[in-house]
Amino acid sequence: MCFQFILPVLNLLVFFSAMLGGWLKQAFVLIVLFFVCMVAVGQNQKKLDNQRTKKWNVTIGVGTTTFLYEVYPDFNSINTEFKNNLGYTANIAFTKVFVKRLETGLGLDVSSFKGKNLSPEFSANGFHNDFIPPVTKAVKYSTQLLTPLFIARYHFREISPPKRGRYYLNGFIEAKVGIAFLFTELAYVAPQPDQSIFVKGKGRQPVPGFNALYSVGTGFRIDIDRKWGVLAIFDINMVNYDCLDAVHNYTISGSRLDLKGTYTRLMIGMSYSLNTKKIKKTPTNYPWTYNSN
């Protein structure tokens, strides 16, 4: 059953893993296969308590995001070339409970990043077409990511136990994979005849970039009642692209560096659960059964 479930997603898995290298690719494949197998095996396990169902969750969250580093495939990192500001993020997710502790689903994330460099010495100067002649005046960047993604979340306690108090605390870990659509612009701080230096998904270059995104996180949820809950999430994200700050990175000899952008998010949100009504079994009425109703 597990291998039958895995086959439809192999093509997508190969597409994402091909963008990674070394042991990072192996780790990504193992993590995804682990969650896929859990879902597949869970289909043969005992269903949630038959006196109560809780199958769908709708979650909305908002918070802050911090651009961390740009990293090589082996996870060695370099600092970004900007003083980065605190950004903002929001998401919405629709998840389904498959087994007592596992839920999977789809989500949509939006994140924004901004920063400045008042005296730039970019490695792209003299190599990238938009950095000839070199950019030396004060600049700023603005980047937005729009990311549809797949979510797998494992809870430390049963999601909907038959007996529980009104307030129910449950921690979880999660993994996500998706496609990040990138909209970015690098511009001069002071007014210039040609204000924009480099753009993607905006202005003269309206087509956004799109790259694989991988995320791992942890958090907790406090159910206020059977339907409503509040939650907090912290996650670390990696985008398979070196231009979250609108500037590519080069070696001294002019070769493009193979880097990936990383950032963290801290969010709070609300969750609403569907299908949480008690199930009442109706007795079967046969022709010879007397019904007083």
Characterise the protein shown here.
The chain has an 8-stranded antiparallel beta barrel. The longest helix has 21 residues, at 22-42. The chain has 293 residues and is mainly β. The protein has 3 helices and 11 strands, in the order αααβββββββββββ. The chain is 12% helix and 45% strand. The radius of gyration is 24 Å and the shape is elongated.
Describe the structure concisely for a colleague:
The protein has 293 residues and is mainly β. 12% of the residues lie in helices and 45% in strands. The protein is built from 3 helices and 11 strands.
Helices and strands in order:
Blueprint (H helix, E strand, L loop, with lengths): L1 H5 L3 H8 L4 H21 L13 E16 L5 E2 L4 E2 L2 E11 L4 E16 L21 E17 L12 E21 L7 E5 L8 E15 L4 E12 L20 E15 L19
Antiparallel strand pairs: 1-2, 1-4, 1-11, 3-5, 4-5, 5-6, 6-7, 7-8, 7-9, 9-10, 10-11
Low-confidence stretches: 1-10, 19-25, 39-53
Distance between the termini: 46 Å
Number of helices: 3
Task: Please write the string of helix (H) and strand (E) elements.
Answer: HHHEEEEEEEEEEE
Helix content: 10-25%
Q: Largest beta sheet, briefly? A: 8 strands, antiparallel, barrel
Q: Major sheet: order of its strands?
A: 1-4-5-6-7-9-10-11
Query: Shape, please?
Result: elongated
Task: Give the class from helix and strand content and strand pairing.
Answer: mainly beta
What fraction strand?
over 45%
**Strands, total number:** 11
Average pLDDT metric? 81
- Gyration radius from CA atoms, angstroms: 24 Å
